[in-house]
Amino acid sequence: MTIKVKTLEPTGMMDGAAAHDLKNQALDALHQGADGVLLNLSAITFMNSSGIGALVSTLKSVREKGKQLYICGLSDQVKMIFELTKMDRVFTLYADVADFEAKVLTA
Amino acid sequence: MSGTAALLTDQLPLRRNRRIRLRDRTLLFRYLVVVNLILGGWYLHWRLTQSIGQAALWLALPLLAAEIYMYFGGVLFLVGLWRPIQRQVRSLNQLTPPLAPDHYPTVDVFITCCNEPAAIVEQTTLAALAMDYPVNQLRVYILDDGNAADIRALSERLCLLDLRSPPLQAAAAALDAQRNQLTARLRQVEALHQDVAAVEQVLSQHSLRVSSQPELLPQILAWFDQLRPAALPDQVWLACQTALGEGFDNALHHAHKDLPAETPIELEAVILNYGVLLRIWDCGHPFDLEGYLQTHGEPVDDWAERGRGLTILRQVVDDLSYFRSDDGRNCLLLIKRYEPQPEGLSPDQSERWQRLGQLQSLHQLLRLSQPSQPSATAILAAQRQSLQAQIDQKTDQLADLARCRYIARDKPKGRPHHAKAGNINHALFSGETQGDFVLTLDADHIPKPQFMQRVLPYFFDFNLDRGQYEGNQIAFVQTPQAFYNLPQGDPFGHDAHLFYGPIQQGKDGMNSAFYTGTNAVLRREALVSMGLQHFALDFAKDEQRLAEFDLIGGLSSISITEDMNTAMRLHSVGWRSVYHSEILAEGLAPDDLSSTLKQKLRWAQGTIQVMLRDNPLLKPGLSFWQRLQYFQTMYSYFVGFFIAIFLASPIIFFFTGLIPVDNFGPQFALHFVPVYVINRLTFVAASWGIPLRELWRNEQYAIALFPLYIQAVWSVFTNQPIKFQVTPKQRQSGVYLGLVRVQLIFFGLTLAGMIWGLVQLILGNWPDPWVYIINSAWAGYHLALLWVIIRAAWWRPKQPKTPA
């Protein structure tokens, strides 16, 4: 299967404002013809619930366009906040880019 | 108490700001509660075992059921007041230790409106903008669910007005000054660029990179020699050459012993006017030179082939150290100090070398102060980048200074909008709001200047270990709802000092203060994380709900009383709450019967919806006392059915002579009177300080609204579609006798029954006048209760004395 996936690699703190910037980047990528967006969060040092809230809002907008959002590379803190807010049930998560490529691109 | 009063110098005298403190009488109150419960149990026991009206069971059993319901209602109510607390009033700007205004959290004010007149919204918005809070940390959002052109225009006008106000002008001037300062710094830093690059170019000769080959030593010494300043004495130079040679040798034969010959060694010679620094970088394993020197203090054996290097080094230089740098290399640092000897040199020559040494020293200072940067030009570039980022930030802040903003949402047909909860959630997730805290205000609730000052201290605890304030587990702080338009005598019973007094204080004592939708500050983090957890559960059941995420992901939206359910969900995931018993905002109460009834019906329906969809008794995570508090409220709305039974009893007696209670004479009095008296005393103890007139009004409405309670329970249990109706803020005129039909019928029948009974008594058809007297007293009480709502049906405000 060949799908065009744009990878975004945000860094540093992810609060509501940062996640909304990310949302705009993701939507721009889709606008430019990508079929999906992969968020590699391995360089995120800290995330709060507003950041996650904005990610769900991104997921919503991406799905409305009939496209996909993938997330990989959760650090321990980010994983913890995903589990606390039960968001691990809402998003499909991959360990890292390799895991994503193995499971999605070559599937 | 006097200390607190002195602190709050900024408190304006508030007409209706009565402080009801149940806490002052807690012990007496608890004593009365216990007596009350025992006597009530005793009375019920007597009723159950000895006085069920056997003659008319169809009437006697419902009455008994009503009495049992009331008893348990009373138990829940009184136990709920068991531990009232009174919070100490503090102000954010008077905390000890103080909290600097720069560290105040950011606050978003959400003014929720839906088709209210612009004048009302304007008043609230202006008051919100005028709150005593740093201007850069406060934003006021008008959440217009009516999407009305006049409200949008209003917010634009107020935004400009606000921007022109002195505090905003001052904030803008301050930001602009900071930005100018930064811009000037950036220009200066940029101007350095070429010169710094040139300096680095000159100084680049002072470092050399070689591979790990012994035969390179002559080349290294040649490189070193050309760096020698004229004023450096021969002895010193010899020592430096020796040190360099030994250092190179050390890298070759120790650090790089097992490494290939192409492994690089980097040499740096920093030649100053009063000293020489030599750095020799190798790629070997870490080595503890200090420890080695301590254990191998003695000089080596004269005949040994190797091992003299260190001894030599220690003798020829003044300082020697060997350390591991962050990039994984080792550095042998050698420092040799000297006194320059400029004799015999031409001034030109001497000056040239001096300048070079001075340049070196400054360059080294720069490098050593920012060891993470590889070069001076890199430091310069980083500095430029950082300044540019700061300037951009100030520009953003300037552009962001507009504090009054407007948010409206699309409400596509055929999709759920989730009413007020949807309106607030949309604003939370729209990306336009970022505040750490959210103050929710209904369109008509005008906040007082000190609102944020009073409420925010609850959200922070001082961490003694770290010496700073930190956020705690408080999710929201609720303040009372009060009204500035209540007419004389409060014909619609809106004054709620009992609820926003002992009841909320009692709930607060059990960590279950109620959020009532307005005049409360919520922590965004709490709201969003709780909302996400619940959203995840909804999503697991139905993935289609993702489309509604921004309307349901925060505040609860499963009922038309989103406020109560939101608080319950916050409590269930471990957040705490506070009730602050000082009036900090005043709003409009509906002043006609139609609007009043709509509002009360919505509360009743919403509460019962929550009971069916998110029952507190079954919800995981709530404490026993929280369950009790929430359940008590829900339980109380079933009262309508039982009131109907009470109201019907004397009527049935008058027309049929049937008595639902055996022994309706002295025995009854013996059991009923003490229970009634102690019950009243307990209530007086609980509500001490609230005017009797208001308590009587509350009691009247509690009874007279019984058809509405029945309607609410019925509509929810039979799944009728229920709409969130916004309570109108403008008087609806008219006579509403149609709305009180049921009450009118009961009123008429009771009155007719009393007359009919009197006739029977006079005709001598009834042997026992006491039964008639007791029933008439009962009926008279009912008439007094019902009268309030009948009177309210045609109540109108008095015409203002001066026409508008």
Automatic annotation (TrEMBL), chain A:
<dbReference type="InterPro" id="IPR002645">
    <property type="entry name" value="STAS_dom"/>
</dbReference>
<dbReference type="InterPro" id="IPR003658">
    <property type="entry name" value="Anti-sigma_ant"/>
</dbReference>
<dbReference type="GO" id="GO:0043856">
    <property type="term" value="F:anti-sigma factor antagonist activity"/>
</dbReference>
<feature type="domain" description="STAS">
    <location>
        <begin position="1"/>
        <end position="107"/>
    </location>
</feature>
<dbReference type="Pfam" id="PF01740">
    <property type="entry name" value="STAS"/>
</dbReference>
<dbReference type="InterPro" id="IPR036513">
    <property type="entry name" value="STAS_dom_sf"/>
</dbReference>
<comment type="similarity">
    <text>Belongs to the anti-sigma-factor antagonist family.</text>
</comment>
<protein>
    <recommendedName>
        <fullName>Anti-sigma factor antagonist</fullName>
    </recommendedName>
</protein>
From TrEMBL, chain B:
<feature type="domain" description="Histidine kinase/HSP90-like ATPase">
    <location>
        <begin position="211"/>
        <end position="336"/>
    </location>
</feature>
<dbReference type="InterPro" id="IPR036890">
    <property type="entry name" value="HATPase_C_sf"/>
</dbReference>
<keyword id="KW-0808">Transferase</keyword>
<keyword id="KW-0472">Membrane</keyword>
<dbReference type="Pfam" id="PF13581">
    <property type="entry name" value="HATPase_c_2"/>
</dbReference>
<feature type="transmembrane region" description="Helical">
    <location>
        <begin position="635"/>
        <end position="656"/>
    </location>
</feature>
<dbReference type="GO" id="GO:0030244">
    <property type="term" value="P:cellulose biosynthetic process"/>
</dbReference>
<keyword id="KW-1133">Transmembrane helix</keyword>
<feature type="transmembrane region" description="Helical">
    <location>
        <begin position="56"/>
        <end position="82"/>
    </location>
</feature>
<feature type="transmembrane region" description="Helical">
    <location>
        <begin position="769"/>
        <end position="790"/>
    </location>
</feature>
<dbReference type="InterPro" id="IPR005150">
    <property type="entry name" value="Cellulose_synth"/>
</dbReference>
<dbReference type="GO" id="GO:0012505">
    <property type="term" value="C:endomembrane system"/>
</dbReference>
<keyword id="KW-0812">Transmembrane</keyword>
<keyword id="KW-0328">Glycosyltransferase</keyword>
<feature type="transmembrane region" description="Helical">
    <location>
        <begin position="739"/>
        <end position="763"/>
    </location>
</feature>
<protein>
    <submittedName>
        <fullName>Cellulose synthase</fullName>
    </submittedName>
</protein>
<dbReference type="InterPro" id="IPR050321">
    <property type="entry name" value="Glycosyltr_2/OpgH_subfam"/>
</dbReference>
<dbReference type="InterPro" id="IPR029044">
    <property type="entry name" value="Nucleotide-diphossugar_trans"/>
</dbReference>
<feature type="transmembrane region" description="Helical">
    <location>
        <begin position="668"/>
        <end position="690"/>
    </location>
</feature>
<dbReference type="Pfam" id="PF03552">
    <property type="entry name" value="Cellulose_synt"/>
</dbReference>
<dbReference type="GO" id="GO:0016760">
    <property type="term" value="F:cellulose synthase (UDP-forming) activity"/>
</dbReference>
<dbReference type="GO" id="GO:0005886">
    <property type="term" value="C:plasma membrane"/>
</dbReference>
